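Late entry, 4'-deoxy-4'-aminopyridoxal-5'-phosphate complex.
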Amino acid sequence: MTRVVYVNGRYLPYAEAGVHVEDRGFQFADAIYEVCEVNGGRLVDETRHMDRLERSLGELRIPLPMSRRALGLILRKVIRRNRVETGLVYLQVTRGAAPRDFPFPAAGTTNPTLVCLARRVDGAKREARAEGGIAVKTMPDIRWGRCDIKTVMLLPAVLAKEAAAADGAQEAWLVDSDGFITEGASSNAWIVDKAGTLITRPTGNAILPGVTRRSLLDVLSRENIPLVERPFSVDEAISAREAFITSASGTVMPVVRINGVSIGNGYPGDLTRRLRSKFHQAVEFSR
Ligand code: PMP
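Prediction complete; structure with ligand written out below:
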């Protein structure tokens, strides 16, 4: 349960936390967010999340509302005040509140809105899910051309996940107009082909450069596991030996079914399980 939420300088009870009705995050999805894993009360990969936050804000020309150090203090305080040992911390920055008009408000007329909340995750439940693996459903990727920016404009992901859930799947894999998988609705997508080669789509405008993806690349080089960064098709995914997704909320999560078809023997693959077990050896922990 979330007890305390940071909103623009104040730590408020959950039920009282809110932003202005003319906040541009609310009206235009004119906002950026980050989600970091909290593991043993520690932040995971804070530096990479803050780097991506700064980059996303820069692409939208939203100023960083305060120094990285000050942001870090808020993250920590929100984690502590919500007594989160295992879970997530969520940070959102919007362009701020202004009378509704499409162009940016004149410089100096509004300040960015900053919201931060933290939530526990049931670690045992997540492990159980990883033991069994998840099902995914493929859906057309109807998002915009700048999926590398982590905006709150998430309606295509909401619709895709809803369609996946209706089919009993836990994630949607989004498919571009050439039949290649871009990424999950809220994760990056990976497969291991029949020859044992690990494949994931290269970064670019079509996918979010996942922090978990990036840290997993470090695991791969430490472990001397070869990787090919290239797009892969739905057919390739369905006939893969293994598949998995990466995200801050699930780290490395095995995929055992795509569109109702079992992947490999229908159980989490050996390489996937190995990567999941090694993942936290390559991350940055901070308190
Ligand atoms: N792609 C999308 C579209 C996402 O929403 C996420 C999760 N935020 C990811 C990839 C994974 O990113 P990360 O590893 O930084 O959580």
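The chain has two domains: 4-121, 126-286. Will revisit in the morning.
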